[in-house]
Amino acid sequence: MKEVVAGVDIGGTNTKIGFVDAQGAILAEGGLPTADYELAEHFVTALDSKIREMMTGHKDLKIIGIGIGAPNANFNKGTIELATNLNWKGIVPLVEMTERQTGLKARITNDANAAALGEMIFGAAKGVKDFIILTLGTGLGSGIVIDGEVVCGHTGFAGELGHMIMVEGGRECGCGRRGCLETYASATGLVRTVLELLSDSREESVLRDMKSSEITSRMVSEAAAAGDDIAVEALDRTAHMIALGIANSVIFSSPEKIFLFGGLAQAGAAIIEPVRKYADELVQPIFRGTFTVMPSGLPEARAAILGASALIWKDAN
Ligand SMILES: [Zn+2]
Questions:
Q1: Is the residue at 41 inside a domain?
Q2: 147 and 285, same structural domain?
Q3: Rounded distance between C-alpha atoms, residue 257 and residue 144, angstroms
Q4: Residues 23 and 87 in one domain
Q5: Is the residue at 69 inside a domain?
Q6: Predicted pLDDT of residue 206
């Protein structure tokens, strides 16, 4: 029998499931529509059925646990709390429900912490004890690892660098405050910067011909690569803000590596190079040259499932 972990990635619309072996190979994949389940109880029953169905084709596999990545997940308590993009309101004890339904060990954490664990067990952070991963998507998620452990804090919600206030009274944030890092340093933040630059100047730009609601971070990256000044400036300011977030974070945990992951990180050298340059300038001199900013070693499409499974694999050996 080959041991696998069921890695479960719960998204607002869909849930993806993968059977992951100890080396990070995904041996079977499946899914179910999260949004169809009004109640978490019904979702957990359906998840159990789906996992059983996936097992029928793989009699040679043995599931040793279920690792779950979900928005607003609390590792300490095994709950999903006040998730705005899920149907399930309030505090959902998903780990307890899953363990009762399946009879298997279950663990849950948020997406960015799952990415950190995935990086640690299967990615570019193998053997690295102190690192930070920044997931640059719609928002900015982060996982902070200190001495080999993901930081969750007293409440279970620690380590969300995306909500460090960088500009007091700045851009409105989804968390209800203003000026958080993620309102500048994310795919959405990049687009907001483009819109500000367009309205503050009369400079020509291919982005000026587009409807503001249609501009994406990818378009900005492409325009920057083609030499569009507005796009170049927006990418540069975004990199600067990411670097400022890094410079502040280095103060409290002195990471060896900082990984950039997600949509915006795909702009590759165009974002990584200026982030490196600015981080080096902005960091307290004693830390200069002590950390490396690099792209994540996880394949984007599989990172969430690998990361979720790492919750179980981390303690399995
Ligand atoms: Zn915020």
A1: yes
A2: yes
A3: 11
A4: yes
A5: yes
A6: 94
The whole-angstrom distance between residue 4's C-alpha and the CA centroid of its chain comes to: 23
Query: Could you tell me if residue 105 is left (phi over 0), alpha (psi between -120 and 50 degrees) or otherwise beta?
Result: beta
Asked if the model's pLDDT at residue 317 lies above 70, the reply is: no
Residues 157 and 193 in one domain: yes
Instruction: Tell me the CATH number at 16.
Output: 3.30.420.40
Query: For residue 121, how far is its CA from the centre of ligand 1 (angstroms)?
Result: 29
The pTM of the full predicted model, rounded to 2 decimals, is: 0.91
Domain, as residue range, for 49: 2-118+301-316
User: Residue 138 Cα, ligand 1 centroid: separation in angstroms?
Assistant: 13
Residues 167, 257 share a domain: yes
Give the model confidence (pLDDT) of 103-135 as tens digits.
Answer: 999 999 999 999 999 999 999 999 999 999 999
Distance between Cα 141 and ligand 1 center (Å): 11
User: Sign (positive/negative) of CA torsion 167, 173, 175, 180?
Assistant: negative
How remote is the CA of residue 179 from the centroid of ligand 1, in Å?
Answer: 7
Task: Please give the distance, rounded to the nearest whole angstrom, from the Cα atom of residue 164 to the centre of ligand 1.
Answer: 7
- C-beta neighbour count of 302 within 10 angstroms: 20
